[in-house]
Design goal:
heterodimer; A: 231 residues; alpha+beta; 5-stranded mixed beta sheet; 4 helices; B: 453 residues; 4-stranded antiparallel beta sheet; 3-stranded antiparallel beta sheet; 18 helices; 13 strands
Chain lengths: 231, 453
């Protein structure tokens, strides 16, 4: 059941994209302009609602060696994003291990250097809230790519790539520690930076930054996450 | 065993043994190894001893905890416990503007602050699509500062590595020269560490008058001082006996574990991002990638010495270029990104330049609004993600920068080489002597500020 959810989501998105006539993907909304909540906003910008849109899928040909890598990975790729000269392959989590093995072993690809996993939490990207982003480098061909997988908050499981890239060990533990992403098949998925008995996963967007108000020369400065923000 | 810590019953207040469910636990406080050995001898002579070394131990490079399983003095299993210096820098950056982020990330790997700033700023600049608009002087100053930083970082690596095997002169020498580099940093950025000097769009400030002369003086002095390290250590029989063949990790091991930096280059593979994926115009500088072929701690020591020479070469070239770039801009021309005011020294110290204050307070309302908006709100960065790795003194350092189009980083994750390379600690030290664990770790040169972030 859990495996079906992301696929359904993908279909849904495709229809939405077709209807809207563009390739971009919205992952949330930004309200207002000055971050003021609960007080009178006379600027008129308070009612502003804008979608947060990430760079859209790229169309073939991607150009240069991008196509070589894409050809080899083709059946495993969900979509390809090329932004500012960097290529990101979005891969379904079921295909991650196969893709990683292919990327490492295929003589035409040879992505030997594993540079880490980085978790990203998109709380408004329904059905694919948690992303794991892998940075890979091919020393043989001097190329760098990014592989991105996502998992819903309800089932935060992603296969572990430790078997393919042993260097992923600590990186996956860190991503688990910070985001709660469960890397299935990891030899010892325990917390690494936070204490073993720590509640919650600090880098998630629903986890508060914390902090106390600081008094300075009679004034009080609220903690950073309670100050006026401009996002 | 000193008498003043002993009670009347002969028990040690601070150290000693206690019975737990895991077996007998000894707290070792130094110079009491005989007592531990004798204690182990009695009763159930256990074959394995698990030693917790650190996190507060002078030779584990900061707050690193090692969990070592010993058989006699041989390490059979080695594990790292990290996280003691975790300060949530990445989380904090999500609550500050893009420019303020530099102030946070510079504090991660505190021995190479400019590299932390640089990789983050390169990521932000790529998302802003202003990579081609960075003024030449800013790029040259970045290279100059980074290479000076490589020298100071390698000096600490050599110094602490020497100290940990008892070569205290190497330590005093290393810190003596590092101080000279920090003086240069203080002259140029105002701070010895945690500079927050490299900003999105350029650098915070122009070179102060007289800086180039100081740098040239430093280069001349270093050319005399660097051979001293070679003369003291390179052929020193004790030094070689402690370092040679220790912490061995060959090319296959390095690639499997994704190790970069001096550890990888000590296997003979010339992988250096400054050459393979140049940034900041490194392709226009004349320097060689240093390698060694022994894949051990001694090779890494020699490699670091050689890399300091190469860095000096780059600093020399950068200083020459800066001599020709007087009064050139150091910040991108785009006023929507560039920090509005230049700093200047007033009667009460460093602050916003008085000309700028006069302009925004007395002449231009628009200027005031612009200054206020850019300083409090900051600029928006187009949505997307970028990863621009750079070659830090410890290996590949990269910042995965994600923007949702707002004025703050949506996510900033740092791939720190110390964090990554420390994974090789077990492979390097298992099967060796306990004393060699220290040497192996020193040859990786992890900085816990970067490991734990």
């Amino acid at each position: 059941m859990t495996d079906e959810t992301p696929e359904q989501k993908t279909e849904l998105e495709t229809t939405e994209e077709l209807a809207a006539g563009h390739e971009e993907r919205a992952v949330g909304e930004r309200h207002g302009m000055f971050g003021v909540r609960g007080t009178g906003d006379t600027s008129g910008y308070g009612g502003l609602v804008r979608p947060v849109i990430l760079p859209g899928s790229a169309e073939r040909p991607y150009g240069g060696w991008f196509d070589t890598v894409a050809d080899a990975l083709d059946p495993l790729i969900e979509r390809v994003v090329i932004h500012r000269g960097e290529i990101t392959f979005h891969v379904h989590r079921d295909n991650l291990l196969q893709a990683a093995r292919l990327l490492r072993d295929d003589p035409a690809l040879r992505f030997e250097l594993f540079s880490g996993v980085s978790g990203v939490h998109y709380p408004d990207d329904e059905g694919r809230e948690l992303h794991a982003v892998y940075h890979l480098t091919s020393m043989t061909y001097n190329r760098a790519i990014r592989v991105e997988v996502s998992a819903p908050d309800a089932d935060p499981t992603v296969p572990s790539v430790v078997g393919v890239y042993p260097a992923a060990d600590w990186h996956e533990r860190e991503t688990y520690d910070m985001f709660g992403l469960l890397f299935a098949g990891h030899p010892s998925l325990t917390r690494i930076l936070m204490p073993d008995d720590w509640p919650g996963h600090p880098q998630r967007k629903d986890y508060p930054l914390g902090g106390i108000p600081v008094e300075y020369k009679g004034g009080t400065v609220p903690p950073p996450d309670q100050r006026r923000s401009y996002t | 065993m000193t008498t003043n810590t002993e009670s009347s019953t002969g028990e040690d207040f601070y150290a000693g043994a206690s019975e737990t469910t895991e077996g007998r636990v000894f707290t070792v406080s130094g110079q009491d190894w005989d007592e531990v050995a004798a204690g182990l001898g009695e009763g159930e002579a256990s074959e394995r001893v698990v030693v917790n070394m650190g996190p507060q131990h002078p030779s584990t490079h900061g707050v690193l905890r090692l969990i070592l399983e010993l058989e006699g003095e041989t390490v059979t299993e080695a594990r790292c416990g990290i996280g003691y210096l975790h300060t949530g820098i990445e989380k904090n950056m999500e609550f500050r503007s893009w420019t303020q982020g530099v102030t946070f990330c510079t504090r991660m790997d505190y021995l190479s602050p400019f590299y932390n700033e640089m990789t983050y700023v390169l990521g932000v600049e790529r998302l802003l699509d202003i990579e081609d608009e960075i003024p030449e002087k800013a790029s040259v100053m970045r290279v100059l500062l980074m290479e000076l930083n490589r020298i100071s970082s390698h000096l600490v690596a050599v110094a602490t590595g020497g100290m940990e095997i008892g070569a205290l002169t190497v330590m005093t020498m290393g810190f003596r020269e590092r101080e000279l580099v920090l003086d240069l940093f203080e002259l140029i950025t105002g701070l010895r560490m945690n500079h927050a000097f490299i900003r999105p769009g350029g650098v915070a400030q122009d070179l102060p008058p007289g800086a180039l002369d100081e740098i040239r003086g430093f280069i001349a002095l270093m050319k005399k001082r660097l051979p001293e390290y070679a003369a003291l250590c390179n052929a020193n029989p004790i030094f070689k006996a402690r370092l040679e063949g220790v912490g061995h990790l060959d090319l296959e091991g390095c690639l499997a574990l994704g190790l970069t930096g001096p550890v990888l280059r000590s296997t003979g593979y010339p992988w250096d991002l400054r050459k393979t994926q140049p940034y900041c115009g490194y392709e226009t500088y004349d320097f060689d990638v240093q390698t060694w072929d022994t894949a051990d701690a001694y090779g890494r020591f020699r490699l670091r010495l050689n890399e300091m020479w190469e860095s000096l070469r780059i600093v020399e070239q950068a200083a020459d270029r800066l001599g020709k770039l007087e009064n050139e801009p150091v910040m991108v021309a785009d006023k929507k990104i560039a920090w509005p005011s230049q700093l200047a020294i007033g009667s009460d110290g460093m602050g916003n330049s008085l000309d700028h204050i006069r302009h925004i307070m007395g002449e231009s309302m628009e200027g005031l609004i612009h200054h206020f908006k850019l300083v409090t709100e900051g600029f928006r960065v187009p949505a997307g993600q970028a990863y621009v790795p750079i070659e830090s003194p410890r290996g590949e350092l990269g910042a995965h920068v994600v923007s949702d189009g707002g004025t703050r980083p949506f996510r900033a994750h740092f791939r720190d080489p110390s964090f990554h390379n420390l994974q090789a600690m077990g492979v390097m030290s298992e099967g060796g002597m306990i004393a060699d664990v220290i040497v192996a770790i020193a040859s990786i040169d992890p900085v816990m500020g970067g490991v734990d972030r």
